[in-house]
Amino acid sequence: MSMPATELAAYNFAYLDEQTKRMIRRAILKAIAIPGYQVPFASREMPMPYGWGTGGVQVTAAILGPQDVLKVIDQGADDTTNAVSIRAFFQKVANVAVTTHTGEATVIQTRHRIPEDTLREGQVLVYQVPIPEPLRFLEPRETETRKMHALEEYGLMHVKLYEDIARHGRIATTYAYPVKVAGRYVMDPSPTPKFDNPKMHRSEALQLFGAGREKRIYAVPPFTDVVSLDFEDHPFEVQSFDKPCALCGARHVYLDEVVLDDRGGRMFVCSDTDYCETRRADGHVGEMLGQSQEAAE
Amino acid sequence: MYVAVKGGETAIANAHRLLADRRRGDRSLPSLTIGQIIEQLGLAVDRVMAEASLYDRSLAALALKQARGDMIEAIFLLRAYRTTLPRFGTSQPIETGRMQVERRVSATYKDLPGGQLLGPTFDYTHRLLDPSLLDDEAVEEPALRESDGTPIMRVSDILDGEGLIEPDGNMPEDHLAGDITREPMEFPMPRDLRLQTLARGDEGFLLALAYSTQRGYGRTHPFVGEIRMGLVDVEFEVPELGFAVSLGEIRVTECQMVNQFKGSAKAPPQFTRGYGLAFGQSERKAMSMSLVDRALRTDEFGEDVVAPAQDEEFVMSHCDNVQATGFVEHLKLPHYVDFQAELDLVRRMRAKHAADQTPDTDQQEAAE
User: Fold this and answer.
1) Chain B residue with Cα closest to A277
2) Do A90 and A196 lie in a common domain?
3) Looking at the domain assignment, is residue A240 inside a domain?
4) Which residue range(s) make up the domain with A176?
5) Exposure b/e, A166-176, CB count within 10 A at least 16 = b
6) Catalytic residue list contains A270
7) What confidence tens digit (pLDDT) does each residue in B139-181 have?
8) How many structural domains does chain A have?
9) Is residue A208, in this structure, part of any structural domain at all?
10) Lesser CB count within 10 Å: N end or C end of chain A?
């Protein structure tokens, strides 16, 4: 047999061929023109599994240029395995500069978090989206949900949030909390904790959302209103943590719970690893870090 | 001291190294060759080609070897390669009526022009394990006869001649077949795109759906009009030449199901069709596909959608095993940010619940 070994290895800059990139860029432009609207696009099969960030990877591949600096995070961290894998993919196929510092990055691909540092003009945040349709779990049919968006018929979503309050005394949605973009489309912010929702509002950065398996792209252009759905008597509120980060002492950030032992020992640390490391480098010391340093001495 | 988890890169590299070791297995045994896989695991190669939508036996065999025999992983590997290939055009429709038939059976006629031809089938084998395969015993040469070159008429054409079955599709002449790998899915889908989706759909999923129609969940009263398997020419029209040239031969399995008749005040009753086509020898797939194709044609025949197999959005959105496996398996990726949010909420709700209750904690905990 004749295996085309050289052909097998010949991939374009950032993996996708230029025609595909053009198709994706068109979808992105349309998405920016209609904030929060889900634009169908001809999602490609990527060399990583569906559901593992293929949408985000395609968006990143379409916008990435040789001069860009890329940061990839998963759960807020640069060193989670899938973030490492996606970062390595772009280093391999696009040979771009990569960083873990939020401030240095021009393109940040993320899964489940928005960095703690405020993003600035010129930066692009690319979200990996599993289910782009905020109404999906209320109405499984695409034909129906598209109609509901077209007619701006979002009563069902408000009924769902109301039922939460009736049943649990509060809105029981803690992540993928629905937002209304530019006063028109209800949008799924991807499964970020609702803690991150306010960061989307009038952000200076361009926010792009890619759902590969579901073949949808949507966007929030810079300086766009993003309002979390709520009621006058049950206003939207974000999670708050009782303790600061155990390593850097940061307050008002999103924390991960780390199980220390089998006797109920817990510590809370920043989910945004870059934010935490930068603070520690600046001399901030959390409770656990102080202890362990003393112990080490 | 707490040390944040680091070293994802090393972990991944080591995992891949171990994977390569397990794939190779015992080094004292010879490594499988691509040729051996193509020749001796041909039906696995066929399935990978069918569900990856790429007719290339060598690459499918390579994918199988690399995937350690995991079919869906092999299909995924081949698809990820296929997607990078340039498209230089669309072939002419293959003419299965001119197939060089290796197998052809009809359940609707006892005998018919061209005859019934069993071909290389597991049908009528007794499923007894064959110890002779443990050793490399010599295998008899097959009994073959030369084809006389006359095309073998399709059963659907026999029925069509009398007007007993609906015509073969009703797409307008200038209709260009879509490409589900190049355009996003939209509902409702035309039948050509549905058939494309089914052709690369998971064999197991389609088999189960087809089975469900037989058990009453969207019954279609099917008869196997014909199953045929063999080689067909793939022809490509070259604009510079002005005529079609042959690109080569591919082996396909085609199933034409003859289903429940329909008629109206204007049209006399006619049988309806379900169509299945798969690369290679994939009879189970082609038959399942034809049953599901017919079940999905509810809008054409004014049938109510009452069963999963008739539900276009349900079937089309869930029949792709590469998409399905990716999304199911993504659950093993870290979700601790979301889980933290849920943990926090449940703790708060439990605290409120405890505060609301009388201090009779035993009962309360039992209730939880």
Assistant:
1) B4
2) yes
3) no
4) 5-228
5) eeeeebbbbbb
6) yes
7) 999 998 888 888 999 998 888 888 889 887 777 888 888 899 9
8) 2
9) yes
10) C
How far, in Å, CA of A287 to CA of A35, rounded? 43
Q: Which residue of B has its CA nearest to A276?
A: B4
* Angle subtended at Cα A203 by Cα A201 and Cα A207, rounded to the nearest 5 degrees: 100
Query: Token digits for A252?
Result: 């008002």
Point out the catalytic residue in the list A36, A56, A210, A249: A36
Write down the ipTM of this complex.
0.84
Whether chain A has a CB inside 8 Å of the CB on B88: the answer is no
Residues A173 and A268 in one domain: no
Q: What angle do CA A269, A256, A130 make, to 5 degrees?
A: 145
Give the residue from chain A lying closest to B344, CA to CA: A239
Is the CB of residue B210 less than 8 Å from the CB of residue B309? Answer: yes
B35 interface with A at CB cutoff 8 Å: yes
Residues A210 and A263 in one domain: no
Please give the full DSSP string across A146-164, using - where no structure is assigned. HHHHHTT--HHHHHHHHHH
Is A261 a domain residue?
Answer: yes
pLDDT digits (tens, 9 = 90+) for A16-57: 989 999 999 999 999 999 999 999 999 998 999 999 999 999
CB-CB contact of B34 with B65 (8 Å): yes
- In degrees rounded to 5, what are phi and psi of residue B206? -70, -35
Active-site residue identified among A53, A56, A76, A270: A270
> How many angstroms from the chain centroid is the CA of residue B201?
4
Look up the pTM and report it. Answer: 0.89
In a domain, A80, yes or no: yes
Residues A86, A214, single domain; the answer is yes
CA-derived radius of gyration, chain B: 26
Which of A11, A15, A18, A45 is the best mutation test for B, with the most CBs of B within 10 A? A45
* Residue ranges per structural domain of chain B: 8-82, 96-120+149-169+181-319
Flag if A54 and B326 touch (Cβ within 8 Å).
Answer: yes
The answer on A265 and A220 residing in a single domain is no
